Amino acid sequence: MSGFEHLTPLILTVITASTPLLFAAAGELVTERSGVLNLGVEGLMVTGALAAFAGTYVSGSAIIGVLCGALAGVLMALVFAALTLSLLANQVATGLALTIFGLGLTSLLGSGFIGVTVENLPKLYIPGLSEIPVLGPIVFGQDAMVYLSFACVGGIGWVLARTRVGLILRAVGASHDSAHALGYPVIRIRYMATMFGGAMGGIAGSYLSLVYTPMWAENLTAGRGWIALALVVFSTWRPGRLVVGAYLFGAITVIQLHAQGLGVAVPSQFLSMTPYLVTIMVLVVISRDRLKIQLNAPACLGRSFHPAQ
Amino acid sequence: MLRSTLKTLALAAIGGAMLSVSAQAEPTKVGFIYVGPISDHGWSFRHDVGRLAIEKELGDKVKTSYVESVSEGPDAERVISQLASSGHKLIFTTSFGYMNPTLKVAKRFPGVKFEHATGYKQAANVATYSARFYEGRYVIGAIAGKMTKSNVIGYVGAYPIPEVVRGINAFLLGARSVNPKVSVKVVWVNSWYDPGKEADAAKALIDQGVDVLAQHTDSPAPLQVAEQRGIVGFGQASDNIAFAPKAQLTAIIDNWDKYYVERAKAVIDGSWKKGDVWGGLKSTMVSMAPYTNLPADVKAMAQKVEADIIAGKVHPFAGPIKDQSGALKAKAGETLDDGTLLGMNWYVEGVEGKLPQ
User: Fold this and answer.
1) Are B39 and A217 an interchain contact pair (Cβ–Cβ within 8 Å)?
2) How many domains is chain A partitioned into structurally?
3) Which of B197, B223, B347 is the best mutation test for A, with the most CBs of A within 10 A?
4) ω before B222 within 30° of 0 (cis)?
């Protein structure tokens, strides 16, 4: 590697690989903080990916496309919420079903969009600033979605830590009985949090089908929803650590491909494994300190709430 | 997967209903199992085109059904035996990893004929077939050798198995036949189908200075990256010009139609025998998509290489061939035999990096 001219494109690729993970994980983090475990992130993402692609293709506008993606994610999340929160279905089973449903539904509805292409999202360009070597294209040359992902994480962090809304949301996740006794509408708050997670999952999917690989193909997400789920635990439910996790995962995924191209003498199978290996290792290290987990983990995660109980 | 299983069951049910109504016009049931979705615009899609060719050619003499996106493992065995037990007389298992499940099920259903793609184990009722894609890869290699200015060509590979390694070697030999300075950089994604990762691999290669991109993975994502970054590349398994109108130079197209129709006919008239067919450009099992975005002289050269392979004048693996260590694998005047090609687990000289074992 001869320095910076290799570094900039590498970082740009890492950003593209990490952004969808960050969106989906941030949404799931809010959902889980309210005590709802939605394992259907993969389903939310893939539905959002198709809706965003179809919306962009039909309307010609990427903004409408992303809105379609978010809306599709919300609708999917509503199905999940109705089943688990109103009908008290098991959250784990329903989440898994949501993924399978999303993958099947999109392959059925998406058949008409295979083989067509849409315009890529435009990148920001500020004369002068975007031309600064190395930092310019990284900091001032991204598409709007990248900035939005950081704004979302920052916003979520601030809301959870500093506002009344965040406090109530966390209370509902920590002890739904107490929150209920205090007069908070537990079910309604969980609906909102789940729908927010749906919107974010949908936006994550939009990023895949509009920026990452601007096309529609079945199973476009290829397991990224599951990575997003793992990242939430990895972050111990804290938004700041989520950024670290998403970028760490994205970086290792991309760097191992670069390493292969440069002829690093490590078997490619092992390199392919490294992102997962590192995630597991960090999880193990974090889990050794039980206090840290318990401090932030929503105590009512995955438990159904019924006011009459 | 669920959807297609239901579809198969529905088809089976309809098939059963028809049997009871008109026993004399009993159609022969032909089943297919695909590793990817038929909408992958690549490998599985082309097999399904073959299935449709059977339906078109043989009309009401056959009834076909398929199950898509079946992973290579215990799932495959279950799906194959389900197809066998629901009255299918001929079953095409269209991925390398279906080899052992196919053989296991074949043992239990001696009356059913099986056709396994790209495998090497046969049985009394299991035939194997594959295509000499390497002939097509030699042609695109020659094009790449002419088109590259940096003399470094990128190659996105799925898994380091002989099928893919053979393709890389044929590609390099094709490129070196017109440009001895060419080398090939390979990045493995360890997946047949992951558009995001395939795109990342393509970006990594382009960032490292390749100006022509070839791929042996199933999605058009790498080609699409080539289009975005303004370099050129090749379609995989089917014509992907829609994804890269400026970047696709040609594509290697898998053509199973003729073979599938022949084999279905053979089952109907009772002449089916086990065998091992390995067809290439000559038998049209492999064909080239239209040559596009090429200067006239390169296009003429590509057409000549293609014609020479068909005529037998050029063999992609004709000696002298050296491996990476410089050891002579084939002397001048020799060609590597099929056995060597099928088990190929070494890079020819000119491929960069070490082959993962």
Assistant:
1) yes
2) 1
3) B197
4) no
